[in-house]
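Structure tokens please, single chain.
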Amino acid sequence: MADTSRTGLHGSVLDQLGVLITAGELPAGHVLRIEQLETRFGVSRSVIRETIRVLESMGMVVSRRRVGVTVAPRTHWNVFDPQIITWRLDGPGRDDQLRSFSELRRGLEPVAAGLAAKLATPTQCGALAGAVMEMAVHGRSGDLEAYLAADIVFHRTLLEASGNEMLAALSGVVAAVLTGRTHHHLMPARPEPAAMRLHADVADAVQAGDAAAAESAMRAIVDEATAAMLSQTDTRSQPAAPHHAGTSATPQGGHPTGS
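Here you go.
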């Protein structure tokens, strides 16, 4: 029981510090004092030291003799760490994180789809088709958590089916961003049918061994998701329109696509 409690405290402090650093509230060069952190978070020195070790492994802080623990610049962070992505999505850097991810996806996921069309196993083809069916079922019912789970399976399987271990290693990054987007209400109550059709097109092209079609459909998924994300960013930056009695409220999150 003591170990569970300590893990809980460590996780809580880690999340709080991670969000403060990624949000810039603890900027690069800021020195973290162990004693001050103990008081601020009301935890033991061992919890703070373990938290610092984890942040250091992510490249977010640097420990130097006679200087102490210093917040590192973003260029030192492991920006592919799913936990860092989650923290950035939780803070004011959300739009920058989503934009960076969209640019990364456009460069990599269509390539992965093309490779998958050449290398995917029958089991992987079945997993892609099954994920699309699950997305369709849960998209129609509006069960966003179940839809998210199927969407993650689809993209993870596609990356793994590419046969490239470096592409496959990005599945955690994809899952973190898709999860963050859903949990921050950047999805409609029911995902767009067009997004589900495009996922089906990718699965069909991979099954047929058509690399060009798989790559094209995957690029369409990324482009549509990016356009929706940018539209949502612009909407949030505009002053809210006055609400008049008798008008229906726009669902939180606008109308981005399924992935």
